[in-house]
Design goal:
Blueprint: H1 2-18, H2 24-37, H3 40-66, E1 76-83, E2 88-89, E3 93-104, E4 110-122, E5 134-141, H4 154-160, E6 165-172, H5 186-204, H6 211-219, H7 227-235, H8 246-257, H9 264-280, H10 285-301, H11 309-323, H12 331-348, H13 358-379, H14 387-412, H15 417-441, H16 454-469, H17 475-489, H18 493-496, E7 499-503, E8 512-516, E9 519-523, E10 528-529, E11 532-533, H19 534-546, E12 554-557, H20 562-565, H21 568-575, E13 579-582, H22 585-588, E14 594-595, E15 601-604, E16 607-613, E17 629-634, E18 637-641, H23 647-657, E19 665-667, H24 679-685, E20 689-692, H25 705-713, E21 717-720, H26 721-724, E22 727-732, E23 735-740, H27 741-744
Parallel strand pairs: 4-6, 9-12, 12-13, 13-14, 18-19, 19-20, 20-21
Antiparallel strand pairs: 1-3, 1-5, 2-3, 3-4, 5-6, 7-8, 7-22, 8-9, 10-11, 15-16, 16-17, 17-18, 22-23
Helix pairs in contact: 1-3, 1-11, 2-3, 8-9, 8-10, 9-10, 10-11, 11-12, 12-13, 13-14, 13-16, 14-15, 16-17
Amino acid sequence: MQRWLSAFCAGVIILHCTTVLLPWWTFILASAAIFIGSPARYVMAMQCLLLGGFYANQVALAHQSNIIPPAYEGHWLDLEGQVCSVIVQRSRHNQFDFCTSEIRKSATESLSGPRKLRLSAPSHLSIAAGSGVIQLHAKLKRPYGSVNPVGGTYEQYLFSRRISGTGWVKQVGLPILAQSATSRSLVSYGLELRQALLARFSVITRDLEHAGILRALVMGDRSQMPLTQQRIMSETGSLHLMAISGLHVGMILLALWRFLPKTGPGVAMLALAGLMYVMLVGLPASAIRAWIMCCVLLCMRTGLVRRNWSKALVVAASVMLLIDPLSPMSMGFCLSFLTVAYLIFMAQSGWLDGRLGLRALLRVQLGFVFFLLPVNALYGLPHNLISIPANLVAIPWVSWLILPGGLLASMVATIDAEFSSWLFTLIDGCLAFLLNYLDALRALPGSMNLDDSSLRLLAFVVLLVVVIGLGRPLPISCLFLVCLAVSAWSGSAAQGNKDRVVVLDVGQGLSVLVQYRQRQWVYDLGAAYERGSAAERALMPLKRAYFHSKPVDGLVISHGDNDHAGDLHYALGQLAPVERWSGEVERLGVQGFEPCRMGMQWHDHDLKVDVLYPDQDISQESANNRSCVLMLELKGKRFLFMGDLEGQAEKRFVALYGHSLKADVLIAGHHGSRNATSMALLKAVRPEIVVFSAGYRNRFGHPHGSTLERVKRFNARAYSTSESGALVFDLRDESMQISEMRARRRAFWMRE
């Protein structure tokens, strides 16, 4: 049975690894071929493998057909349905999931059937969870997200959550059907109760400095965590403690274990109590996985199931994949089950001898540092040795003090608000100590690098398995550990010697990374948002994949607008640029930048960076027309970066340089707006390729149709990051190869 379940799990996971959906009849043919041509002892296992793939394939196809069609994008639609998640409050809008029964485009055109949408609405609109069927007037898009060379995609996350579209609500209609007490579903009651508990929790903790972390720990809602605190925990490898996971569910069940009989009915009651807690915190996938694992362990503990750790892991994974076959699309699923499997492997290899005490804990942490390195390399996440001292303190501090105290204070709040407030203040002080400790660790060295090269990742994983498989630390395993450490701290020579220009996909903004051997320049950072920035989500993962700790040679901020200057304070701390240039130094709010002026230059062998504009005092110009314009020459290929230059400033720029502006690639000004990239500029530059960095169906309509028409008339190839994803220009000898990331990383969850 264990072999069959393992095959079923493998079939589901293989589908997500191949990223391709197949018609149903291919599985029928494959099943028949197995029955005819396979040895009898392998038939059932292979049929289970096919069954897992077929099950996940059909679920994915069903959701794919449920995504809103392109004909419904960009129109104001009438949505009929119910709010099916808690309302997440942002600074300027609210966000929630809306489960529709009908989407009407006109009196004759509509989409019927259930669909889940991720919507945003102005804060002043009155929308409540669990309030019955309502009508919304909204504009929708198909699920979308940036696609870059390194890291996950937002489209993948939306697909895994079965989101059929995203949109913006303009107004709320009158309730169509107010639910009576008898007709309301358990989900409606749960949503209303959770929303009320979150509101009450906010009132109780409103004066606390770390209220957002407490809200995440106790209520499973990380939406209110300040970005600075979230980054501290992320960079020290302790952010995993903020998810409702085995730590939380296990603690609740362990507390109830003492009061219930250790029999079948007792286990059932305990499992039901755990499920109620998981529902109370919003049914996050991490909590569901933890609850399933705890239920399997309870059955083993009471003797209802024979004790077998590997079998328990396979059963838990099978149940989770039966409930949600799209869950492997989440990094959390892979990390949770891989982590448990890794711990079992370490224990069976003799690395986790309980008699060693602190030394065993150190081994676990050191093992996890190397174990997570390939995973973090694939996603471009920060990774360093400081996670060892960070987690050695953070895990027991949160597990034994902050989490129990937070749960206790929350329960006491229903009886004695004053005593509860005192408890929360005490816990807040404990959190302040932990955050200060973690923040101090960030100053220590220890950054590790492992690029996303498949062969290098595979070699690293094999070597790690060999080390653990040898058992207790022996001279040979210690030698292998040294090899692991050396490979982790040394960058890949193959990646480090590549010459390329990467126009990142940062939505409605601009960011470009230039790499020449061990040299790197960055032009613009993309936009900053309330919960992050393009620099954090797109630029830094790419840089970590190649040169994690090496400062960049130069950072150019074209001008001070948010979609170009973005999260500058964060970027300076991460990039530590040597040269710092900008067209609007006074708007940046930081020191150390030199104003761009015509004639500024930086040169190193085959890489040359020239500032072409401004050529004079332009303090009276608009922000866009104060952009720093660069000509970058790399291995004989010329790239012209126009920033947001447009209108009369662009005409004057062309008149100043004329045909000396000849370039192979033009990074178009102002994202392809109507009054930029004029015919005069195109004639002067004579580009083979024009790149527009713009967001998918952005509200400005960039790139504008007239601009695209001008490029088409000039016979230049036009690319837009909204359709192509990030664009990678690889320069080898005298040739230039262009890669579109949306095509290269093509997967079934991406829009056509």
